[in-house]
Amino acid sequence: MNEQQFEQYQNIPDSKFVFAQQDSNIHDKKFDTKAVSFARDSFRRFCKNKSSVVAAVILGIIILFAIFVPMFSTHNIDAVSPKEVFLEPKLFDTGTGFWDGTRKYTRIVYDSVNETPANFYKGAVLDLKLDEEPTLIDQALSYGSGGYVMFENQDVSGVEPATLSSDSFTVTDSGHYKADVQFGDEANIYNENIGEYRILLNVNGEQATLRDWSTDYSAGQFDLSQTLRTLGLDSASVRLQFELKATEGAYSYILLKSCLFTADEDVENTEELQTVGFTDATKMVLLSKDAFGVTPKGYWSGISKNNFRKGIYASEIYYCDFVFDTYANVYDSAEVTFARSEIDEFIRNGWCKYDESVGPESFEKLSDECPIDYVTSQVINTRTGKLQELTAMSPRYRQMGYKTMPKFIFGTDANGIDVFTQMFNGLRTSLVLGVCTFLFCFLFGLVWGAVSGYFGGWVDLSMERFTDILGGVPWIVVMTLCILHLGNNFFTFFLALCMTGWMGTAGITRTQFYRFKKQEHVLAARTLGASDWRLIFKHILPNSMGTIITSSVLMIPSVIYSEATLAYLNLGLKGTSSFGVMLSENQQYIQSHSYLIVIPSIVMALLMISFNLFGNGLRDAVNPTLKGSEG
Amino acid sequence: MWKYILKRIGLALITAFIILSLTFILIKMLPPQRMLTGKLGTRTAFYENEVRLGYLYSSAEKLTDDYVDKLTYEDGHTTYYYKTPVLQQYFSWIRNIVTRWDWGSSEVIMPNVDATVIIGERLWTSMKINIFSVIFSVPIGIALGIWAALKKGKMTDTIISTVVMVLISLPGFVLITFLMLLLCYNNAVLPTQWPNPTDPTGKKVLGYILPVFCLSLGSICGYCRFVRAELCEVMESEYLLLARTKGLTRRQAITRHALRNAMVPIFPSILSEFIGILGGSMILEQLYGIPGIGQLFVRSMNSQDYNVLFVDMAIFTTLGLLAGVLLDMSYGIIDPRIRMGAR
Fold first, then answer.
1. Which of B74, B106, B138 corresponds to the end of one domain?
2. Domain contains B9
3. Average pLDDT, chain A
4. Domains contained in chain B, number
5. Percentage of residues in chain A having pLDDT higher than 90
6. Confidence bin at A433 (pLDDT 50/70/90)
7. Phi and psi (nearest 5°) for A90?
């Protein structure tokens, strides 16, 4: 205000003053702008908290899934499907390397006969990496080869010799029979007790020495026909035997690489000779008696059984690393026989063409609906001369009732049940339990807290003591007692959770009532004659409702958590599939099929984190003064 | 002050007594205990002990072992031993405890061994893990909390607060499962189960790592959040501003004024948590196979060994109440304002 204006305003004559509202009554005016309600204001504050909004969205998605997935899922979660067990999670196409239903295997024994890792379906093996060098193991596996026979004398008193004897074979005078024996050169395996041995030829019970006691492990060729002749025989049934001396205090052993029987000329029993001898130590050791105790041809036996042992040393096996497509393993094409009526129906539907007079080549696939890929053979009925049945390659999933190759985005469990559907089905049970418990506890706690807080005095005191006692019992004890008395079903859980759950709400309500009941607006209403009922529900409760709801809403995740915890303690819900029960049932597969645990755990953690973030955001929005008080 | 402490202890004792009485009556109201497994001699010995304690009564003078077998029905009750009425059992229980400190013996887990002896053996295992966990978690948790509070609103604070929030929200079994998968199964750094007493010392030490780590992680997050909240509140107070205006450096003001005041509510909570977690983590003990009282609880519940279950419940209840009393008392001792308020 400058000097001039100041002058001007200082000398205003009295007549110029007029009452502003001389004729009109003063009324409250409506706001020109639109009023912002409490809920709207809270919502606006909530939206500013980015993490809470994200949490709310995630929470919404999970809840929607829990409601709708069990409703619309095509996978039956009650029927066990033993063929489809442990399918890996699959979202992308096979070969993308991530979430594609494949499983990595490392160091699996390679089966060189079938050209596939041992006991794996060849058609499902991808990306096979075979070791360049064989691995030497002291174990006779049917996939191994080579190595040395380790013939051991286990008599540690050093008395009894042990004998390894070949199967008997005939030596005739028509050929010049020889035995080639090769020893292992790796003599120092785990001790220096290389045995002293001799090689004998057992001719009808008589023994002729081929090589006398020695520790010479050089290869040797022995003339069997010559030995026979020195005994005065031309032909006989013979056995080759290795006799091994025992040593004192330790096992003695020799290593045999091969033992080959040959004849110079073309003899009748060439085949027999080949079977009796051995070139592959692993195969020799693996030969075993059948179920009736009958030894196969070429079986080498020990004569003194007590101290005899025939083992393998340094057998060669190949390991391989590969990626295994679990879906191809289960759903790949296989030979299936189709009856004539089925083929007729396919042709009638226009799915394929087939001419039985031409044969399998005439098959022509016209539509993807047709389950046949190609025909391998046909059977014509000899009497009618018409087609009886077809053998054709067909994807196995068609036989299981799927139109296309199924995809289980979270895999399947030990019963072949879709984890995705089962998980959200379980989550629904848990959520229903949580919401029911929340509703009951909230209402009960509200009433309890309101009565206790509003009336105060001895009512409050006695009610508080009661809460003290009930609150002093650990929830696990309440739960256990309820389960023991009423069995573990949904209702018991609900009851037990309610018994301990309402005290939190009651406590907060009580505090809120203490805070508001002495305030002026309540006093004013009381002076005007408002009843207790009206004071509680009209004047106190609406003020404190926001705080009570937001601090009680976190009960839902805590109920889900409690239920899952109980399931882990083997006290979980029986008869109903809940989230925790499913998790605890799959706990045993943590090592072999970890996705069964990992995926539901992630969902559980996501749910908990979202609930907490959402709850905190809600609390801050409803009661801005508390903002950020808890990390 | 003494009056306050005595009042608190007295109230806790009364509460404990009422809870235990209710628990006892509820357990004794359960269908009769099974005794279908185990040797006959053990069975009769157990029944005779129950008779001595006044929970059962026998209808004849002396019974031979093989005879009991014929008298036992499928549901466990016998034509020879009968249950005394529950209230009578309750008074017998009080008498047994007051006069002989006899809590009954186990019937399935370790037949005819005193329940208190079994609990005593296992309590120590649970306590050992918890003591280690406290030793690790208290300094780390407090340090992290202080660090986050000093850097409030900056990157460090955001990262610490977020990690703490996530870890607190993670259910315990999820955390344990993941750690077991990662450290025990996939990489085989740690044993997959709690080591046996016969295992070498190296393995025993390794066996402690996972349980202690799992228990510590939760406590660390709890302390961190608590310390951060307390310290942030103190840092905004006027006396700290005064301290700075007096000419103290930031470091001096924080160590001499802020930290000391922030620690007031923190120490009682450490004390009470120490008592509280003596009970151990049931989930952890179950999943990792630790022979503690948490695992015992589940085992006795599943095998319906009610005497052991009852003593275990009593321990959990008492520990919980004790923690509450200790918390209230230490508040009263440390902070005079609260002591005044209580009078």
1. B106
2. no
3. 84
4. 2
5. 9
6. very high
7. -140, 120
Q: Using a CB-CB distance cutoff of 8 angstroms, which residues of chain A are in contact with residue B168?
A: 612
Domain boundaries, position B49: 35-106
Query: For A153-286, which CATH class?
Result: mainly beta
Does residue B283 lie in a domain region?
Answer: yes
Same domain, residue pair B163 and B298: yes
Q: Are strands A169-171 and A236-244 parallel, antiparallel or unpaired?
A: antiparallel
Q: Minimal Cα–Cα distance from B227 to chain A, Å? A: 10
Clarify whether residues B98 and B130 are in a common domain. no
Do B62 and B88 share a domain, yes or no?
yes
Q: Which amino acid does the sequence have at B264?
A: V
Distance from CA of B19 to the nearest CA of A (A): 7
Best of B18, B151, B175, B177 to substitute, by most chain A Cβ atoms within 10 angstroms, is B177
| Under-50 pLDDT residues of chain B | 339-343
CB-CB: which of B165, B173, B320 is closest to A565? B173
Integer Cα distance of B6 and B12 in angstroms: 10
What pLDDT shows up at residue B73? 60
Per mean pLDDT, which range of A98-112, A494-508, A549-563, A611-625 is the poorest?
A611-625
Query: What pLDDT score does B254 carry?
Result: 87
Query: Is B301 an interface residue toward A (CB < 8 Å)?
Result: yes
A213 phi and psi, to 5 degrees? -40, 125
pTM metric for this prediction: 0.78
* Region for A351 from its dihedrals, namely left if φ exceeds 0, alpha if ψ lies in -120 to 50, beta otherwise: alpha
Q: Return the pLDDT at A630.
A: 44
Contact (CB<8Å) B302/A605: no
Give CA–CA dist B58/B64, Å, rounded.
13
In angstroms, the CA B343 to CA B341 distance is 6
State yes or no: pLDDT of A16 exceeds 80. yes
pLDDT at A432: 92
Residues B223 and B300 in one domain: yes
The full 3-state SS of A405-421, as one line of letters, equals CCCCCCCECCCCCEHHH
Of A72, A76, A92, A89, residue with least CA distance to A400: A76
pLDDT at B76: 57
The answer as to whether B19 is a domain residue is: no
Nearest to B144 by CA among B229, B74, B84, B260: B229
DSSP string over B12-41: HHHHHHHHHHHHHHHHHTSSPPP--SS-HH
Convert the pLDDT of each residue in A121-166 to its tens digit: 888 888 888 888 888 888 888 888 888 888 888 888 877 888 888 8
Same domain, yes or no, for B266 and B304?
yes
**Set of chain A residues whose Cβ sits within 8 Å of the Cβ of B283:** 565, 568-569
Boundary of a domain, candidates B106, B140, B161? B106
Other CB atoms within 10 Å distance of the CB of residue A235: 14
Least Cα distance to B18 among A473, A230, A449, A382 occurs for: A473
CATH 1.10.357.10, domain A419-626, yes or no: no
Q: What is the pLDDT of residue B340?
A: 37
- Judgement on whether residues B90 and B131 belong to the same structural domain of the protein: no
All residues at 6 or more sequence positions from A147 whose CB lies less than 8 Å from its CB, including other chains: A136, A281, A282, A312, A313, A314, A315, A316
Task: State the pLDDT at residue A449.
Answer: 92
Give yes or no for residue A104 having a pLDDT over 50: yes
Average pLDDT of the segment spanning A501-525? 89
What's the pLDDT at B33? 56
Q: Which amino acid is at B21?
A: S
